[in-house]
Amino acid sequence: MHKLSPQLTLGLSLKDEATFANFYAGKNSEVVTELKKTAAGQGEQVIYVCGMRGQGASHLLQASCHYAHQHQMSSVYLPLANLISLTPEILNGLELLGLVCIDDLHLAAGHHDWEEAIFHLYNRIYDSGGKIIIAANGLPKAINLGLLDLVSRLSWGIIFQLHSLTDAEKLSILIMRANRRGISLPEEVGKYILTHCPRHMGTLFAALDVLDKVSLAAQRRLTIPFVKEVLEI
Question: Which helix (H) or strand (E) holds 150?
Fold first, then answer.
């Protein structure tokens, strides 16, 4: 089995909650289905997920790695936001893994060494019959990559554009996530959080984390006055 370098492991930890079970698919059910197939060693060899911040692309890539592990398939999650400052040589040998997930590919734009390294890793994975899932904030031709051969390769597989969640779906997700934590989140309280916090799901989940910890410590239920006090909104 390929052993990851110490440098690489610094940025690779998966969030325990980033699973398919914790993802509200909604209009994105097709991409979830295809990602599961690929993460289980079947399905498409190359999947490109296009999603803006807060649409769940990072969650889906990490969920794919969790799912691969459940199916006895080796995998690695590569968040370029954490890795772009390192040498791209850390990608060497990753084609030996069953699944490679590269997040925030758009951050490689303008870094010729990284673009080149990702291009060669892509080719090695493709030639070896491995699986690769890539996420970026735009379509391959729109993320300003300088290496045109890489842009071309990214179009070889299936491309999914993630759909944004409605406010009603965001509310459902908050209530679902709270329930899985053993917290009762009344609908009116959820609506208050949604109205008074930035509607980016990462921010909403962070707010729920804080409320969970404080309510547990104070033995308080989640009410609008309590939420207002804790989140200072």
Answer: helix 148-154
Residues 166-188 pLDDT 10s = 899 889 989 988 988 888 999 99
Q: Does domain 6-161 have CATH number 3.40.50.300?
A: yes
The two beta strands, 46-50 and 99-103, are unpaired
Cα gap 144→110, rounded to integer Å: 8
What radius of gyration, in Å, describes the C-alpha atoms of the chain? Answer: 19
Fold for 167-231, please state it: Helicase, Ruva Protein; domain 3 (1.10.8)
Which residue from 98, 134, 130 is spatially nearest to 115, judged by alpha carbons? 134
pTM of the predicted protein model:
0.81
E strand or H helix at 30, and its extent? helix 29-39
Instruction: Give the model's pLDDT for residue 10.
Output: 44
Burial class of residue 186 in the structure, from the number of CB atoms within 10 Å of its CB (0-12 exposed, 13-18 middle, 19+ buried): middle
